[in-house]
Write the structure tokens for this entry.
Amino acid sequence: MRARLEELMGTYGQKVTLVSRKSGEEAGVMAFLQPVLKERAVPPVTATPLGAVSGRRWLYVGPAGRDIRSGDRVCFGTLRLVAQEAEAVYFRGEVLYCRAVLQLEKEAARSTCRSMSLSYS
């Protein structure tokens, strides 16, 4: 099951860069990244065909082999996000994938990610 999920991430996921809060080490991964849909229209919200979308919170689903922890950064294009909460999701005793809830990084704390020079796995 894990291999199939990682195959789907490789085919349909986005190229993102994970930056460790502790070491600053960068790793390119293929993962699913999307804004969290909101039930109520609380500004700032953008209407989409899927519903109201807030640019403040994002959901990350990534490969089991690349841990993400609270405080780690996720870079996608010009988007800079920081993990607010993160966990490994298990299936039958094995890590199936890692998930995290992300928020936009504050303007003053933004940094550049060298995503173009990384290989994605």
About this structure: Residues 61 and 99 are 4 Å apart (CA to CA). The helical segments are 2-12. The longest strand covers residues 26-38.
